[in-house]
Amino acid sequence: MSIKTRTFNVLNPATGEQIAEVADGTAEDATRAVTTAAEALRAWAATPPRARAEVLRRCYELVVADTDRLAGLICAENGKSVADARAEVGYAAEFFRWFSEEAVRPEGSYGEAPAGGARTIVTHRPVGVAALVTPWNFPAAMATRKIAPALAAGCTVVLKPAAETPLTALAVARLLTEAGVPDGVVNLVPTTDPQGVVSTWLADARVRKVSFTGSTGVGRALLRQAADRVLNTSMELGGNAPFVVTADADLDAALEGAMIAKFRGGGQACTAANRFYVHSDVVAEFTDRFGAAVESLRVGPATDLDSQVGPMISERARDGIRTMVEAAVADGARVSHRSAAPANGWFYPATVLADVPADARILGEEIFGPVAPIVAWDDEEKLLELVNDTELGLAAYVYAGRLQDALRLAERIEAGMVGINRGIVSDPAAPFGGVKQSGIGREGAREGIREFQEPQYFSVDLT
Ligand code: NAD
Hints:
alpha/beta, Aldehyde Dehydrogenase, Chain A, domain 2, 2 domains, binds nicotinamide-adenine-dinucleotide, six-stranded mixed sheet, Aldehyde Dehydrogenase, Chain A, domain 1
């Protein structure tokens, strides 16, 4: 009897063409993955930190050595430009290097009980089997940003990549095996039934942790399910990053930062600058110069090596952006500059919206595309009100001539990360994450490993 495995198609968003067929995981596959992860847990948790660190270090080296192939897969299934894809592979690899270094730096304490007569020894234990769920916009880095700290902490994992981009995660998983990650420690379940697979995991008593990166709406739904089992959760959710430019900012630097903060990955980054607040003294010059740079952006498929901005992930995403721009124009914004874009595939032209009213609907939505609305401001207090008038608080950017002004503004912006005179905030050594409905917990840095550990203390009688 032949067993037919159900499969789904992976499409190239630059052409809409099928590039691969992937096994479509079911709830039974999800349970099998947890069984394997649970069986591997004890041995992996008991593996000496140095040995775990060395495996992670080899993961780093193998991912770096395979940059061309991994970047090719990212380009093919996600559509981003070759430069963006290569940068993502470097960023993804760094999480293995960083957490190989953290794996051997256990933190604990030895203290005297205030009442005397006892000592308290604090250590950190792996939380157990962790369920990881990742989005399509950084198919390599969103996976490694979770896998590396989980493994460093001694956890085993089950991971569900986004159905749009399973190929990169599968390729990374194969490299992990080559690097010496034992069987059962990392288990992938690609699927077109995210709810079926993930809810199976959240209901399984052997799963002790869920770490999710994706939209706030899905994060909220997973938090509800996690509540039933009082599950340890980490949530990296949506953003609505403001990009603030003061009257005395270095405009050359602000323009360079704006291009990176807005157009990296075609604007499909949770940290993407979503709304530009530029002081009225410089807004005309900023808009003209930014607009000129945007008009000359090359929007096209990654097969054109000069492309700087790729397609949107799907036809639906592209149409959604078109609708948002139409609504912005209806609200009084003006399309001031626009790049060219190919007619085929799911491309949207890089676009600048000028004279955007401060209450335009587009400023309250995560655009997730190459559209830059610009709002002029005069009064710092009113600016801060507008900037903070959102339930999201992931990233923000401030360009100011004086560090004092930049820091004063940054400290009052409700965001987990603020780029100061810098258009990029991501760094494996820094705690990535948001406040308000942008998430719970942090990835990267020292904090990243803590998300996969629980403190345990020993109270020792000394009498
Ligand atoms: P999404 O929430 O639709 O999907 C994310 C993941 O959740 C995918 O793997 C998807 O298959 C899965 N999923 C979807 N519905 C589910 C359900 N009902 N139950 C369980 N799993 C489900 O998000 P997306 O469109 O893939 O990604 C874009 C979003 O992710 C944006 O909002 C972006 O800001 C956010 N994001 C956040 C970060 C961060 O670090 N904060 C990083 C990247 C992306």
